[in-house]
Design brief:
The chain is 23% helix and 25% strand. It contains 10 helices and 16 strands. It has a domain of 187 residues.
Length: 303
């Protein structure tokens, strides 16, 4: 089953809002341009040959970090109904300054039960107990395997056949990501690639995006959930994936790990087989072809 159900521009992306306990329609930033890029032959050639190149996103990101971009902020807040009362106030020097805004202290409490894994991003989640090679939602399972996501590194065997959480951050979302449990960093490395969009429209057209886009991988040893492969996926128009503290070895549940500059992005977490299982509502909605909007710090899995 697919989030995108037809080939017309009126397609809607529908997700389950956990807090409101109901389905909602996603309002997509740059919807018409995105659909042209990934649903037309000409658009696909341009995005693959030109727009997905890293330097294009870097140039666009530089504009978003300039003072010239500041004027976009009020309209963006209005058009996408951003609840600014939940965030620390500005002033914001640029659109990127606004884009990486922080929540006010206490706005997102973290689940304290050590048996529950905390949501590492405020995002739209998909969940799998085990990724199957012939699975087709949201992409072909072979492109969500540990070997594909980790670039064939020696770590892949450790996570092959284990659970997976995929958190998609839209441009309207909070764009900082955090540690889901306490523990220490074992290794961190980058896998270079292109920068395609991670929107479901793009995933429908290109199944290999998560395995070929630019990625930052961190192997974590956690207190309660064994080893995790924490993967940040770059995307079209994302100027940069920033790590808050590259020298960090130990971390606590809820500590900020980093943030994405402008654009929609994805964080993927892989686990060892048998160590934990994603929450039931995430599994059920994924089986129905729907993402679940989860707030930062809520439970997403348990052991």
């Amino acid at each position: 089953m697919s989030i995108v159900t037809s080939k017309v521009k009126s397609q809607q992306i529908i997700f389950w809002h956990r807090k409101k306990q109901g389905y909602e329609i996603e309002k997509v930033y740059g919807d018409a341009s995105l659909r042209w890029a990934y649903q037309t032959a000409v658009g696909q050639k341009i995005v693959d040959g030109f727009l997905s190149q890293a330097w294009v996103s870097q140039v666009y990101g530089a504009f978003q970090s300039s003072r010239l971009s500041q004027r976009k902020i009020p309209e963006f807040i209005k058009n996408f109904n951003i609840p600014m009362e939940e965030f620390e106030s500005g002033p914001f020097a640029s659109f990127n300054d606004f884009f990486i805004r922080k929540f006010k202290p206490g706005a997102r409490p973290w689940v304290e039960d050590p048996k529950c894994m905390a949501a590492f991003a405020e995002a739209r989640y998909l969940a799998f107990e085990k990724v199957l090679p012939d699975q087709k939602f949201p992409v072909k399972g072979k492109f969500l395997s540990a070997g594909a996501l980790l670039g064939g590194t020696s770590w892949a065997k450790k996570f092959e056949g284990g659970p997976l959480l995929l958190a998609r951050l839209c441009p309207v979302d909070y764009h900082r990501f955090h540690f889901p449990d306490s523990g220490r960093v074992l290794e961190s490395f980058s896998l270079h690639g292109k920068l395609h969009s991670v929107n479901p429209v793009a995933l429908e057209a290109r199944s290999d995006i998560f395995a070929t886009n630019e990625r930052r991988v961190t192997i974590l040893e956690t207190q309660n959930f064994g080893s995790l492969a924490y993967i940040e996926v770059g995307a079209l128009c994302v100027g940069k994936i920033v790590q808050t503290d590259l020298s960090r070895e130990y971390f606590r549940r809820g500590d900020e790990k980093g943030y994405f500059l402008f654009g929609g992005s994805t964080v993927i977490v892989l686990g060892q087989p048998g160590h934990w299982i994603p929450d039931r509502d995430l599994l059920e909605q994924t089986q129905m072809g729907r993402e679940v909007l989860v707030r930062l710090g809520e439970s997403v899995a348990s052991r």
